[in-house]
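seq:
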Amino acid sequence: MSRAVIMSVLLATLIVVGTSTPVWAAQLDARINPNAETSPFKMNYQKTVFIEYPNGGNLFDELKGKEWTVSGTADSSNPGVKALMEELNRGIANDGSQAQISDLNVSYDFHLKARNINTSIDYRVILQGTLSDYVITKDSQRTLVDLGWRGLTTDKEINIDGIEINIPINILRDHEPEAYTFFAGTEAEEVLGKHLINADFILEQPLTNWHFLFDPTGINVDAGTFGLNEEIAGFVVSTWTMGESSIREGRQVERVFEAEVMADQLYIVRSVQSSDQGNLATIGFGALDVLDEVEIAGVTPTPPEDFMTTSTGDFPVMIVYGMAGLAAVAGIAFFFVSSRSLKNEQQGQQGIDPNRLVGYQTSASSGGYQTNRGEAQLKDDQDYQQTRNVYEAEQSQSPPPQTTPSTQDEAACGCAASLEMGSECDCAMQGACLCDGTCKCGADICKEQVSSMS
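struct:
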């Protein structure tokens, strides 16, 4: 029964996870080439809002059965995209960075779906553009790259072809005005009014807390035989990533904002965003630093000769080797102590002292053939309880075996051997007996011997 319950829970979990849509907040993906004047970047903003009506009501009646999608794309020639680009560049400058967005494309998708107990609205805005002016200084040995531009955020209304894409409540205001009236002037309006284009957390998380790795493929001798991109030929590629829970970044959890609205019924508005994620790469080996409170990377074609690192950043490989060495020393010490302990234990004979044993012969002659079989027994019964066979106790408790009584003639006669040998044997040794005509033993072998001799 318990196994069936466990399997049911696992199956339900798989169904929920498999049918759930991830709700990322802001997701950055950029690759900076310090040897070029521009580099591409992509920023994805996503949020889901749930409007819950557990007891039905007028809001349920208003939204029941509705489903619609608003989507579109625009480039930098669009006035709304130009306004967004100006707002983002203004925010970058306020963060102290000298980098600027020189080109931008915007795509957006808003989807509303009403259900029996709630209505969900999925918001998604994707920015793809070109970054420029990120190189601070450059010489023959190193290039300083500005990385303080990554907090691409604006709290202004952004209208593209008549669609406001940054403030979630505006999509309700423009496409569901009757539903909007339930939230206007309430706490729910504040929850729905949090701007979507927000990457503050990506900027606030120091790059020293991000995971760092570098790929040396570009400097391999035979890398060119595998169609290596010319951009990274002769270079390594440094990568910083963030978004998972760790000791440095802390526990990353989804951000949930909730408000209740009391109208004809109790309504609940919930905004859900997962933790931000970032993937930032530079061509070359990047060593992090800070210049005028702005994070930068000193980029060189190859890493220093003595540099060794893991995905944790500045955790040296030598420490890992040292820990492995300590484990080996601990193992050797364990075996050494164990060996000493064994040597200190009592050695030699651990059972009965041979001096307390005496042997006696158990064989007898048979027709001139004498064996040398014997047994060993204790000279006395001292410490008998410690050395006795455990099976002996069981045998003593069982009834003695029944024996068939032998006749007086058999007991007296036994098996008479020939007079020339001057010996006699017992009937138990039938195969070795030589019986004469005076033997009255009832054994078949003796009868056959007597018959053959008469």
